[in-house]
Every structure is written in C-alpha cells, then in structure tokens.
Design brief:
The chain is an alpha/beta fold. Helix content is 36%, strand content 20%. It contains nine helices and 13 strands. The chain has helices spanning 13-23, 52-58, 82-98, 132-145, 168-179, 197-209, 226-237, 257-263, 271-278, and strands at 4-8, 28-32, 47-49, 64-67, 103-109, 150-155, 157-159, 181-185, 191-192, 194-196, 214-218, 224-225, 240-244. The strands form four sheets. It has a seven-stranded parallel sheet with strand order 3-2-1-4-5-6-11, with helices on both faces. It has a two-stranded parallel sheet with strand order 7-10. A two-stranded parallel ribbon has the order 8-13. β4 (64-67), α3 (82-98) and β5 form a beta-alpha-beta unit. The mean pLDDT is 94.
C-alpha cells in the first residue's frame, strides 16, 4: 500500500517541490493550502483541501505529515499580527491533535535564534530576542516536541528557480531584470545562508524516514557574503554592482554537521549551481 502523506502549505515554494518528490515515489498525497491552488501541477492522485475542518472530516490519518504552512510577513517580522497565532501556532496544535499517530515533520526557522550570541549557530545555540515570527515558530516547536514521533527542521533561506522575489537572492535577480544593476547594502560583508529547495525537500523526506525524534538545522554547509552572492549573479548576468546605505543586520553562519551526520544527509546542490539556474 502506498504511504499516505499530508503536506500543509502544498502550494508554497517548498511544498510544490516536496509534492513532486513524493509523487515520484508513488506516495498518496493530500494537501492543505489557501484558496489559490493554481500553482500546483494537476495530479489526479492528490487531494486538495482549502480548510482544516474539511481535511479533518475526510482524512482519518496519515503516515507522514509535513507541516510547511506558515505566515511569513516578509519585511514585517517585528510587527504583531493575528496570523502568527492562527497559522503558526493554532493550526500546528490542531494538526498535532487530530493526527497524533503520524510522523510529524515541522518546518521551523532559524529565526528562533534571533540575534546570534555566537557563531556558528548550532541546534542547541541559545535564543536571543527573536522577532514575532521567531517567537511563533518557538511556540510551534513546543507543540511538536510533545508529539510522540516528530522532526523539527530550522530552515535558513530556501532558494531556487521559480521562486517569488521575496528574499535577498531573487530580489537581486529581479533588480537585474529591471535595471541591469544589483544593489548591495553597506559593505556587502554580511553573511547569510541559502539552501536549495530541492535539498530542503530531500531533508524533509530523510527526517520523515529517520526512526528517532530529531531537531536539525535546514541549511547549506557554507554561508556567503552579500558581496559573493552579488558577484555570482553578476557573473551569470553581466550586471553591475552598486553599493548603497548601511547594513547593520548580523551575519549568520551555521554548523549542521552533528545532525546531518546522524541523518546521513549532505546538501547536493551548490549555491553556485542554484544561482546559475536562477539567472535571468
């Protein structure tokens, strides 16, 4: 019998890639998403639900749950919003309650760490003044930690071809389309981490198959400065780089090696390859 899977946020960037990976293995997939299902490829074997009540009524259980749905207010992480509770906390609790026997894979965020007190960050690094988004993810993690069979993945920035320009890399590429130039704030020395969406989907699946409970980072093995990212995009597009303003944001580097060793996981797609595939 095919394994049964629920993907929440199935119409999101990671959700669509995870759906493709799971259907390729003949998993039976149900998806919970907002009303816009146009981004999901037509697949007669996938059952879509646009509200949790209908899902709970019609689906008695799943072997795996990939809870990817999240309210992410890009640029407004420090502003309170009711959706932080409704989506990131309450929905997590409802799914936990209704599907207590499932393996629960929860997509959390490195935002839980707030302003880093030490680098590189590891799973057990302390939290320090996380924003509202990070706090909502901490609350979601607290729910999932009480689930009998679970995995929590703290993702950094997930990137890849076809994503919306909501984070730094696709915004830079969008700038190239519009102006043939890339704006870099400050000196460009701030370091950030990017994991290819295909590696992120593969990590979700390996966490689902892992027999024990685990919390892991969901990051690439190397971080890059904004300068390095801009130079790679410029190399692939012929764009010029312009420096402007100041950037007081902290750098982020990570050490995922203990958990990756446990999971026998290694990111397969380099940042350079992802940038080349995302080029204009």
């Amino acid at each position: 019998m095919n394994k049964s899977v629920l993907i929440t946020g199935i119409n999101g960037f990671l959700g669509r890639h995870l759906l493709n990976a799971l259907t390729a293995k003949d998993y039976r997939v149900a998806g919970l998403c907002r009303t816009d299902t146009s981004l999901i490829p037509e697949n007669p074997g996938v059952k879509l639900y646009t509200n949790a009540e209908a899902l709970f009524r019609q689906e008695p259980g799943f072997e795996y749950i990939f809870h990817l749905a999240s309210f992410i207010p890009y640029g407004k992480f420090h502003e309170p919003h009711a959706e932080f509770y409704t989506t990131n906390i309450k929905l997590t609790g409802l799914i936990d309650e209704h599907y207590a026997s499932s393996k629960f894979v929860f997509a959390s965020s490195v935002a839980v760490y707030g302003v880093p007190l030490q680098l590189p960050l590891q799973v057990n690094s302390p939290f320090n003044r996380p924003d509202y988004y990070g706090l909502s993810k901490i609350a979601g993690e607290a729910i999932v930690k009480n689930h009998a069979n679970h995995a929590i993945i703290r993702f950094s920035s997930i990137i890849g071809k076809g994503m919306k320009p909501v984070t730094l890399i696709p915004k830079m590429i969008e700038q190239v389309k519009q102006t043939k130039a890339i704006q870099v704030w400050g000196t460009g020395e701030r370091m950030q981490n990017y994991i290819d969406v295909r590696d992120a989907a593969r990590l979700c699946m390996q966490c689902a198959d892992y027999s024990e409970n685990i919390i892991t980072l969901g990051v690439a093995e190397k971080s890059y400065t904004n300068n390095q990212a801009a130079q790679l995009i410029a190399l692939n597009t012929g764009a010029i780089i312009e420096y402007t303003g100041e950037d007081a944001s902290p750098s982020f580097t990570y050490d995922p090696s203990p958990e990756y060793k446990t999971l026998h996981f290694k990111p397969a797609i380099t940042f350079e390859r992802t940038i080349a595939e995302m080029k204009v």
